[in-house]
Write the structure tokens for this entry.
Amino acid sequence: MSKNTRIVLIFGGFVTAVAAALYPIVIHPMMNIDDYRLKVWSDPFSRK
């Protein structure tokens, strides 16, 4: 294997690992906003 191919594979693996780690943190919540929407709480003391 040539030196350039090895560097490209290592760099590509690093980029893939970073993308796999960021997917559940950044991309999934942005694509599924309804799952992460905050619910409005009712007042536990029933103030009016």
